[in-house]
Amino acid sequence: MENKTALKILDVAQDMVRNRGYSAFSYADIAAEVGIRKASIHYHFASKDDLVRSLVQRYRANMSRDCDWISHYSERLDIRLMQFVGLYRDGLDKKQICLCAMLSADFAVLPEATKEEIQAFFQETETWLTELLQKGESNRLWACRPSAQAEAKGLIALLQGSQLIARSSANPAETFDNIVRPLLAAKFSLQY
Predict the structure, then answer these.
(1) pLDDT digits (tens, 9 = 90+) for 4-34
(2) How far from 149 is each of 18, 19, 158, 191, CA to CA, in Å?
(3) Among candidates 173, 164, 161, 153, which has minimal Cα distance to 18?
(4) pLDDT, tens digit, for every residue of 125-182?
(5) Is residue 140 exposed (0-12), middle (13-18) or buried (19+ Cβ within 10 Å)?
(6) Could you tell me if 22 and 51 are in contact, meaning their C-beta atoms sit under 8 angstroms apart?
(7) I want to staple 45 with a disulfide (CB 3.0 to 4.6 A). Which of 7, 50, 52, 127 is the partner?
């Protein structure tokens, strides 16, 4: 997958999915954007399903890498939490939302292998966030009720829901902040 053309195809397809969703893009759209023929896309990704599964695998790997970086960025757990929130806020300038959240809207029509990749993404993200929240609770920085795992699920839902609302506003980043900031400040006593 080190081929530059394949990577460009993935980059363009990811932007399209994060902006439009699964059903609103085609190989013709990608070919026009990349400047290649549709047959060239089929050479790298036999079908749209193969392409989307590859997108999710890459997105999972990137989220894992980002969470690992956050874990080493600072010793302060509150800063780690805010860095995690930033992962969801960053795409809003391009009116993009989480790839897996966007694909979840079309979950019923996705192939089984792609569904499994999306489920793995959410499970891995939830596990990482649960561990972070448990550390914060152990250090008496915040209380997780009813559990750190429930808080992690709720926080992911808050961030993804905030992305959806924010992307339709005139100022997405400000809207996202206005939704997320007071809730995080109240729950986790964070300076945001």
Answers:
(1) 999 999 999 999 999 999 998 999 999 999 9
(2) 26, 29, 14, 23
(3) 164
(4) 999 999 999 999 999 989 999 999 999 999 999 999 999 999 989 999 999 999 999 9
(5) exposed
(6) no
(7) 50
